Amino acid sequence: MHLSLVCHLRQRLCLVAGGNHLAETRVHQLLQAGADILVCASELTPGLSALAEQQQIRWNQGRYHSGLLKGCWLVVATTSDQTLNNQISRETNSAQIFCEISQQQGSSAVLQTTATVLPPEMNIPSPGAGEVALVGAGPGDAGLLTLKALSCLQQADVVLADRLVSDDIWALICPATEYISVGKQCGRHSTTQQQINQLLISQAQSGKRVVRLKGGDPLIFGRGGEELEALAAAGIRFSVVPGITAASGCAAYAGIPLTHRDYADSLRLITGHTKHAASPPFLSGISPSQTTVFYMGLQQAGDIYQQLTAAGVSDQTPVAVIGKGTRREQKVSVGILHELQQLCKDAASPALIIVGEVVRLQHSLNWFSAGQNLI
Ligand code: SAH
User: Which domain of life does the UniProt lineage start with (predicted)?
Assistant: First the structure.
């Protein structure tokens, strides 16, 4: 079992033992991370030589010796000499320096110990010029965060987050990071969208690296688009890190393939709330081989039932209601459209409704049981 680490390496000394192509790959990653790089090797690849000439890295020509460890934060060993790698591993261990042993085998690289070197997704802003990363947190299971999302979170000065972000994800954020909750609850908006936009702008204008963290994917029913429009209008630099949306996360953890050649050839994602009305948008043109997923639909179960049946969907169509999907408390209730209101009444929020023939597969493909799976 390895613990993945995100290292802040800006201006920190990193020793790369080896001058081969693997070393060159690592050097590029370390350069992106802003590290101070010393390479020790008797020979360098042409790419590394060029970097040494441009003084982007320093080259200590010759074999590794323990004297080079002084002041190092991280050592990356890429040599093909197993005995030397073992020596580096032992010596870094006793000096309490993180070490990654990478070996070239044929054309593929093998990592023996893992130290994840993530390039900074956000550049250190020049004074007064902050930036915002709009980051998707996925549906709940912290393991579904992307590496980019994690990297942004760990570099943020301030995180503005929704209520939908799970405690497990909070646990990954450095306790010293400033946190502003802008959670919205159905029918109870603690912070208005306008206020959130203003906060994002003012935080970035004060020079901070701001992460706007949203459940699922920030651009799927997450108002992320509106926030980006406000940032663009204010001239704030921004980037977007997509996340796993509730439909894919919940369906996967419930054992429901959203499409399947025998059951569904298309998929639509629908919100139970629109900006101007508290009922789902008018549903037209539904085909029996389509999977329909409703976000924010619990309170609208009656309307959803009415609209679907009015659009010609049989009330015997299988439906699933997934509460707290991908989390330990996930609960999946399966029935037919006729029972939708009852299923929704019993569900815990947040919940997703899946309507379509694919739901039949849940019975045989259901695999998730918290704490008992490989993942
Ligand atoms: N941007 C988010 C959706 C925000 S709308 C995304 O891409 O997933 C909020 C709705 O998403 C909730 O009302 C619910 O319908 C759904 N949702 C989010 N997380 C969920 C979860 N863990 N389980 C079930 N539904 C979830």
Answer: Bacteria
Buried b (16+ CB within 10 A) or exposed e, 146-184: bebbbbbbbbbbbbbbbebbbeebbeebeeeeeeeebeb
Q: What would the pLDDT profile of 265-291 be if each residue is shown by its tens digit? A: 999 999 988 777 666 666 777 788 999
To test ligand 1's pocket by mutation, which of 295, 332, 349, 353 has the most ligand atoms within 8 angstroms of CB?
Answer: 295
3-state SS, residue 49 = helix
Which residue has better confidence, 370 or 332? 332
Which residue, by CA, sits nearest to atom 6 of ligand 1? 216
Q: Distance between CA atoms of 245 and 150, rounded to whole angstroms?
A: 16
Of residues 165 and 375, the one with the higher pLDDT is 165
Of ligand 1's atoms, which has the minimum distance to the CA of residue 243? 7
Find tokens 């009922």 and name the residue: 279
- Which of 184, 208, 303, 331 is catalytic? The answer is 184
Integer angstrom CA distances of residue 303 from 6, 44, 194: 47, 68, 29
Q: Examine the residue annotation and report whether 81 is marked as an active-site residue of this protein.
A: no
Q: 137 in ligand 1 pocket by Cβ < 6 Å?
A: no
Q: What is the pTM of this model?
A: 0.73
216: Cβ below 6 Å to ligand 1? yes
- Pocket lining: 320 vs ligand 1, CB cutoff 6 Å: no
Within 206-333, residue ranges assigned H as helices are 224-233, 246-254, 301-310
Give catalytic status of residue 262 as yes or no. no
